[in-house]
């Protein structure tokens, strides 16, 4: 199962990024936490589903979600 984390982007001093285990090294960055959550959910859906862990400003996990894989429509 894939896993993505939405975390504060401390390197740039603002914004949020999506960090994924086994990703290709790119970490999508957004201005808002909500945009980062949307991006992480989209990535998980397109990659077979998985767990999304959302971190707060303090870095601690404040929410977990299970994202289902994208289904093929007939």
TrEMBL record:
Looking up Pfam families in the UniProt record yields: DUF2188
- Where do the segments described as Disordered lie? 1-31
Q: What is this protein called?
A: Uncharacterized protein DUF2188
Q: What is the lineage of its organism?
A: Bacteria, Bacillati, Actinomycetota, Actinomycetes, Actinomycetes incertae sedis
């Amino acid at each position: 199962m894939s896993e993505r984390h939405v975390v504060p982007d401390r390197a740039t001093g603002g914004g949020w990024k999506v960090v994924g285990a086994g990703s290709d090294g790119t970490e999508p960055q957004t201005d808002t936490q909500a945009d980062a959550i949307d991006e992480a959910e989209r990535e998980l859906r397109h990659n077979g589903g998985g767990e999304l862990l959302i971190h707060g400003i303090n870095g601690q996990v404040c929410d977990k979600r299970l994202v289902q894989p994208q289904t093929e429509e007939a």
